Amino acid sequence: MKSISANVTVVNPDLPGNLRIYPGDVSPPLASSINFQSRRTRANNLMIGLSSDGAGTLAVMNDSAGAVDVILDVNGFFR
User: Is 67 helix (H, G, I), strand (E, B) or coil?
Assistant: First the structure.
């Protein structure tokens, strides 16, 4: 697999912020995948590449000072 189509949902964030979701073998991007406010559930669709090292990993960076729960529903994949 080279990339996935997914829906990311942010649940119960303590503080406002954003998540950056990106291939596990590269540096974090400057752009966020989803922005959120405290105590508000948010969802966003994304298409994201997977790591090219064969492991197919993703990395998630929480760019907030608070905790947040994340749900990632994979809809499909691309080869």
Answer: coil
